[in-house]
Every structure is written in C-alpha cells, then in structure tokens.
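Comment thread on ticket #2218

A.B. wrote:
> Attaching the input chain for the structure job we discussed in standup.
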Amino acid sequence: MKVLIIDDETRQGLPLQKLLKKEGYVTEYCSDPNEGLYQLKEISYDLLLLDLNMPKLDGFELLNQLRNLNINTPVIIISSRCGFNDKINGLNIGADDYLTKPYKFEELLARVKALLRRSKKQINSSIKVDDLIVDISKRSVTRNQKSINLTTREYNLLELFVLNIGKILTRQEILDNICDINYDKDNNIVDVYIAYLRKKVDKGSANKLIHTKRGAGYYLDIIS
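C.D. wrote:
> Ran it. Output below, let me know if you need it in another format.
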C-alpha cells in the first residue's frame, strides 16, 4: 500500500514516515503542499495523511482542489486544529477521517488500517488467476493450493499485477508503486523483484503467469 504524508513540519512528518515504513507501507513524505498536490495528480496513492496549517497552501484548500479534480484518494486529516467546525468542515470537503494532534501512533495506525480495509471492500477481496489466489484483505497468496510466503515488497508487486491483469506495467509504474519517490530510478530493483516473484510464483508451474513485453514492461496474465 502506498501512503503520502503532506506536512510542512519535518519534525513530525519524517518520524511518521519512518514508523509507517516499519509497518510495511510504501510511504512518501512531502513538506511542500504544492509539490504534494502535484504528486497526487501524477501518482496513484492508497492513502493521504494531510496536515492543515501550512503557509504555502492550506490543507483544506488542497483537499478541496483534490476533490474538484475527481481524485478520490482516501484522506485522514492530522491537525492541531481541534475545533468542532474544523472537523465538520474537513469531513464535508471530502476527508474520510480527522485526527487531532498530539496523537498516539497506535491510534493513527488503527485508523489507517480501518480506512484501507473500507477502501478494499470496493475490490474483490480474493482474486483468482488460473490456480493463483491472492487474498487482498488478508495479504495472503496461494498457488495450486500451496501457500507462498512473500516479503512486503514482493506482495505489493504481486498485488499491483493482479489488480491490473493483462495490462503492461512500465518499469516506472512498478517503481512508483513498490518504492518511495526518492529511490534511485537507475537502480535495477524492478528486475530484481520481478525475478524474486517469478521464482516464488511461477517456479514449478507449467503455466507461467508473469511475462515480459520487451521494451515495454511486465504483465501478469494467463497465456494458453
């Protein structure tokens, strides 16, 4: 799952990014709200954690612009503004949840998990491709009725494939979904994780599911 934090206070945003990464979330942090809005237009995120008190662009205005662009990324507002009207305004503009500072990380994490669970209900919780079954709600994978143990990054890559069956995903699209934005794009991490995934998902199966389209990218599909 890919999370974006927009908060101009680096002493709050960076530690939060670190904690979420430890929990297995691909997490990016942006201290400039205008840059954050640009990233939201260009990259698909599963969740936005948004501060309000930012001098360059107020969080309410950013959220309003986001919804006017029909970008429906789930949003949790995290703010020191604790007034009743602020909470109502945030929820009416399009936030999915509102958490006031200071807060316990455990509470934020519980809210993140709950919101992502609700978002996933719009997707079939279990996706079957040939004899491969990916249970998105449980983050579990089986093939030919045998459990496959994947690392967080391997699972994120496989989930990306099964949610885009038959679609060729470019290296950049894959990189954007399994790594944070600051990762060295010249690194061969995509090739490495494709190889890892093939070894765990396709090895020993006559019907290979992960394919390469030379010069274009990778895709998952059943090819007779």
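A.B. wrote:
> Thanks. Noting for the ticket: The longest strand covers residues 2-6.
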